[in-house]
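Hi U.,

Before I forget, here's the chain from the pilot set. I'm dumping it here mostly so it's searchable later in email.
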Amino acid sequence: MITNIIFRELIRLGVDFVVSVPSSLFKNLLDMLDEAKEILHVPVTREEEGVGIAAGAYLGGKTPALIMQNSGLGNSINALASLNMVFRIPLLILIAQRGGKGETIPAQIPMGKATPALLDAIGIPHYTPKNAEQIPEAFERAKKSFHSNKVPVAVLIERELMKNEENRSY
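Structure:
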């Protein structure tokens, strides 16, 4: 199950603080985080709020991650560029990449197409595993960027990759 792989990778990377905005693609993962003893999970209402809280957690000695849908990237781009990039505050961003193959909601398509270019525009490295076997490699590459460059780094999980998660329909 993709959710289990992602959860294990968060643990392996040493993530101990996760801020999240609700996402149907990551519902099972968010449920797991609520139960996890090794990770403090803080749900928030806005992505830019999550960026600020995660920055504070990092400055307080935590290894943070932000979980959101790609539509929230637009909400958080200024905070990421003017806070994290300027002050070299690393953040692992796990993005539910909507708008691609099989998307049923037309409003998701424009941001789905724009997400990689927006990340590139502000200098955030990003990795998009195409299958379950590529997830550990994507997280390992993210870890290297996170620690060596001290910048946010994103792992994009496409809707199509999550389509077989049990009890979920997207």
